[in-house]
Amino acid sequence: MDSRTKRRLSPDDLAALTRRALGAGLASAEELTDGYANAVWALRLDDGREVVLKLSPAPDLEQLRYERELLRTEADACRLAGRAGVPVPVVLRACHGDPVLGGDYLVMAALDGTPWNQVELDEAAQRSVRRELGRHLATLNTVTGRVYGYPHAGITGSTWREAFLAMSGAILDDVARYPTPLPRPVPELRAVFEGASGVLDEVRVPHLVHFDAWTGNVFLDLGGPPRIQAIIDYERAFWGDPLAELVAPTLFGEVEESDPLLAGYREVRPLELTAEARTRIDLYRAYVYLIMLVENGPRQYPEADYAPLRDLTWSCLVKILERL
Length: 324
Hints:
By secondary structure, the chain is an alpha+beta fold.
């Protein structure tokens, strides 16, 4: 989707960047428009390599608080996930502060698979891939850290409750900078999060969480029975509760015990959906719905493209808030 945060580079700018980043010239470039925040290009270099370039918004462009240093978060999380055994794109270069353009960029080896949201699978294949996704997400969640929240964005806490209230508080603070219609006033929303936050004390260790593993961020190898080639886009990754991983694959629905995602997850890590666990999932679902509503402030999506997503998100947030 088009977004004000996506930078436009000329062919000469892209060629100069590839020379700085990888010591190779540019043979061709195609902008990829499926993403929402960073500008992304598929590049063919003059040495034959095919890579993907992600470029952060201009350094002087205001973003949501949690979006600070998104590409640093992605580079770190992608490498940690790969070391744990999760299939990820190979990071070729991560630059934090380009001397010419300013801002950050990330260069990864291109994938030859197909995004899951662009193919139709029969029921058996769908169930098999969801089970495989559960295994990979559980493997990612075995990676543990020393602090909760978004370290690169400076939104952290010594406990998961403290960090999550800081995370949800940050997105509500952003409403002051980017006035956004919401189902309830901001003070009331803060009270909902705080009132339900006691269940977060069950989380005692910070786990790495992708938090955006919807089908568009899962590439499939279709050379035989469909299987996952890579999980991409670690921009929203944080350190916290592994249960939050269940939100994106069930974004506008519910977590059902019959979902193969859970069976695959439980092959790697234990997972019990107690009443308290479901409340935690509701908190994380409400949080991501708020992000999806407030992020239009800095990004300024085209109204015709964004309106259906905004309306669906609004109705789902209303339902979750009533339950919380």
